[in-house]
Amino acid sequence: MDQRAMLEPNIRTVLVCCGTGCLANGSMDVFRALQKQLETEGGEFQVRTYTKATGCNGWCEKGPLVKIVPDDITYCNVKASDVPAIVDKTLKKGEVVKKLLYRDPKTKKYFKSHREISFYTKQLKVALRNIGEIDPANIQDYIARDGYQALAKVLKSMSPEQVIDEVQRSGLRGRGGAGFPTGLKWKACASQAAEPRYVVCNGDEGDPGAFMDRSIMEGDPHSVIEGMIIGAYAVGAAAGFIYVRDEYDLAVVNLGRAIEDARRSGYLGDNILGSGFSFDIEIVRGGGAFVCGEETALLASIEGNVGEPRDKYVYPTEKGLWGQPTVINNVESWANVPVIINRGADEWARVGTATSKGTKVFSLVGKVYNTGLVEVPMGTTLREIIFDIGGGIPNGRQFKAVQTGGPSGGCIPASLIDLPVDFDSLTSVGSMMGSGGMIVMDDRTCMVEVARYYLNFLAGESCGKCVPCREGIRRMLEILTRICNAQGHPEDLEILSSLGETLQVASLCGLGKTAPNPVLSTLRYFRDEYVAHIVEKRCPAGVCRSMTEFYIDASLCTGCGLCKKNCPADAISGEIKEVHVIDQDRCIKCGECINNCKFQAVKVR
């Protein structure tokens, strides 16, 4: 693909989403089929057309996605077999292929442009500004969208102090979880006398269900690199490290290529853009330990030691990597820095709330129609994210809770659906922003089992260095497991609360301090479910098998046969259009009957 053609605005471009999710659904087959057919079609096109493999568009539920610009057409769930229709109708004749357009499940209306679709209309993409629009393997694509202009501005016209002041005035808070002001962190590092200094990008995204940082590293690696170079200039660092989770193969490949391209183009290495400033970046592959998301553990891992945290009575900005002043920010934080410099701190800070400026990227997953990546202004309510963008709860079920902040976050009940999402409001209700994981739960979710699930994950990920975390999480897990197995005792609730509060104050690092959040938040908002498990030996959601019995309400059963068809144990009997019955002796309590019933006729007792 020639670079000149890529920069011509009147050239038609076919953008094929090649993020990890779409790749898993065959988007590379679509991309290759398009390339092959366009090559063989020769000169039959009135408008020159070329294809481009981009990063994730965010709407994983509808992938693979294909966008055609400047026609502003978006096709969903595209297969390689759809390519001839796209070429013949759209690229040759300018007509849309209706069956590939998004159709709203409620209004039945078709949408040509992704800009009209509810999943995108309330989003504001800043950190994700280039993803889905550029080829991450081509630096010219990034440059064509103002890439490296912020770096040039900084090196030519701003002192390091002015850069720090600009970031500080923007109000940018770390997107990795703690929400510490980024400008203050940079200022603290720059004020140290010791040299050398380092900057580090935390790309060790270990939260189950979270893929925000992964998407940015895969789809727009230069935005991270440019942010790090600017940060290095501000604090006086000559070397930087990107710590990437080892499982993120595509991120490692795209970051590695981007670093090489940046070096060749004069943005990395000695005497960057002739400014006299020198800086370079190295990739470090993490071993997959969740605790390495904790910055002191991450630094130990980069040094070649076991990834264990240390107490932060001395911050990394004073003594970090190899005992030297070090700034650590996560992927999304670094990706915001070029925008702050280009637009100015005041313009960037216009978005968001008084104490949480800018936007935040969330991975919206769980029991919601539209799963994927969303970026919204801070202060957007949970209702807007889950129902307006996410499309609400599938299969006619009720929204019950949303878990934010990853395994160490809390569960927020349906009664708080209008809560504005920002750092402080989430903390005030017993949860946290974390790195941006957001898992939606419906009324078929057992909140006791949810707490047990996260404690089980954290027990396996605790490094074991401090006693409160190592022993406390395991004791809480044992109690929750007993409760889910109908062996709980009334005094368990007070013990869980006491253990959780102890972990919050006595643990060494953030993993132990926040590990009780799933338990304490579910005790706070769903205590009746714990009581039902312990006193009544009943799981209201029908998840804990030893306490669950499904039955069919004869007044609601239409005899459609879906429950019988999907029962793996042949435990349901009944003829079509007659009331069905569950054989309790054969039922294995898997829940397939209640999950498939469209008439809410299957009940739990």
From TrEMBL:
InterPro entries: 4Fe4S_Fe-S-bd (IPR017896), 4Fe4S_Fe_S_CS (IPR017900), NADH-UbQ_OxRdtase_51kDa_CS (IPR001949), Nuo51_FMN-bd (IPR011538), Nuo51_FMN-bd_sf (IPR037225), Nuop51_4Fe4S-bd (IPR019575), Nuop51_4Fe4S-bd_sf (IPR037207), Thioredoxin-like_sf (IPR036249). GO terms for molecular function: 4 iron, 4 sulfur cluster binding; FMN binding; metal ion binding; NADH dehydrogenase (ubiquinone) activity; oxidoreductase activity. Its EC number is 1.6.99.5. The lineage of its organism: Bacteria, Bacillati, Bacillota, Clostridia, Eubacteriales. Residues 548-577, 578-605 form the 4Fe-4S ferredoxin-type domain. SMART domains: NADH_4Fe-4S. This is NADH dehydrogenase (Quinone). It is an enzyme of class 1 (oxidoreductase). Belongs to the complex I 51 kDa subunit family. Keywords: 4Fe-4S, Iron, Iron-sulfur, Metal-binding, Oxidoreductase. CDD domains: TRX_Fd_family.
